[in-house]
Amino acid sequence: MPGDGRGSFRNVPAGRLANGMPRSGGRNETKGTRLRLGRMYDPLSRRRRKKMSRKRRHNALDRAEHGSPARQAILDAVRRAGLPSVPLPAITGVRDPDTGDQVSRFMVSVEAAAAAVQIVETGGVEAAVRERFPEAAFIAATAPAWSFDRIDAHTDTHTMARLDVLVCPGEFGVAENGAVWLGESAMGSRAAPFLTQHLMLVLDKNAIVPDMHAAYDRLDVAREGYGVFVAGPSKTADIEQALVIGAHGPRSLTVLLT
Q: What range does the domain containing 34 cover?
């Protein structure tokens, strides 16, 4: 039925609102209006929407090129505040004693995180990679120590998206959780470890610390602008508590201890 609020239209005399009250002056008074879902419908609104869409696109391109004005205003205000630098606080608390076989403990933690780990000779990394993934068509590395194709900061993302296996040098491992610290320089490109199907990290077995306290004691956060602790393959169970492997990153992780 007309005006029943279910998406139908009804005509409203020109110059009048839906409740019969006169409209205020405006260029569209003589064009007539129609009411839909309790709102005034203006036949010329499509033209205005198109104009606004062009303006929004222009603003989006301007933000992409010059950055968000609001964001820049906030950053400028922070810089003007001139807040003094504050040293990082000393972290105190109970720590695991640095005793025992950290390599064995690390290997158990890696496997508990659904990753694989094996000990290889320093010169046996390439053979171990090819043995684990004999059918891989595109294997690359981020360090010149291996003869695979090279991935660096200038590599096209479409090229990285075709990666079957990526080999990276890890800086150090953490025995308590099987994590490996991967700095930006070791990634080649920030996107590469997340676009590859399978990730292999090469780690010196003497570079294993007992826990995260020791990890942050060792980590120099000011040296590089980016880095990640990698523990296991990409895993998520957000939807219906169903575990999905590889949704946001590599489908498998292998740590090669040399």
A: 10-41
